[in-house]
Amino acid sequence: MAETANDLRTLRQSREWSQGRLAQEMGVSRQTINAIETGRFDPSLPLALRLARVFGRTVEEIFALKE
Amino acid sequence: MAETANDLRTLRQSREWSQGRLAQEMGVSRQTINAIETGRFDPSLPLALRLARVFGRTVEEIFALKE
DNA sequence: ACGTTATGACAAGTGTCCTTGACACGGCGC
DNA sequence: GCGCCGTGTCAAGGACACTTGTCATAACGT
C-alpha cells in the first residue's frame, strides 16, 4: 500500500515534467495534455497506451471507467 | 502457455457471440464492432475499457500499440 | 520592473469515432 | 428455390480528439 497515486497529473509531477515536456514525449500538443488532465476530454486509445507505458502503469490504472 | 489469443475477434468467437450481440453488450452499433475487428479504426478509450472488462483482459492485452 | 516558465482556456479547423440506413455476399435450413 | 443470419462495406451526418494560434494569470529569478 501507499503506492503513488495514478492520476495523470500526479504521475507527471512525480517525474517533475511540465505539461509541455510530457506532450513532446507523447508526440501531442501541450493543450492536449492539459485537456486530459483537466478532464475536458479522454485521450485516444493509442495516446492512452503511450501514457500508460511511459509511466509504467496499465491503462486501467490511470484511466478508470466512470460508473 | 497455450492461452487463448487476445484479439477481439477471437475473444468474441470463443464466447460464440455475433458482432451484433457484442455490440449491444457494449452499447455501440454492429458496424462499430466490425470496424474495430477489421482494423478500420481504434475504439475510443471508454469502449476499449468496456471491451477489456467484458472479456476479462487488460486493455494492453487486447489492443497493442503497433510498432 | 522585467522576462521567463507553467498552466488554463478559448476559437477555428481537421481528422477520427460512431451513428443510422442501406446494399451485397456466403452459408445454412427448409 | 426461398428466407434468415452473420458479415463486410459504403454514405452522410454528429460528436469528439487533436491541431495551431492566441490570450490571461500566477510564480519565479534577476
TrEMBL record, chains A, B:
Residues 8-62 form the HTH cro/C1-type domain. The keyword Coiled coil does not apply. It comes from the Bacteria. Keywords: DNA-binding. The keyword DNA-binding applies. Pfam families: HTH_3. InterPro entries: Cro/C1-type_HTH (IPR001387), Lambda_DNA-bd_dom_sf (IPR010982). PROSITE patterns: HTH_CROC1 (PS50943). This is Transcriptional regulator. It comes from Ornithinimicrobium pekingense.
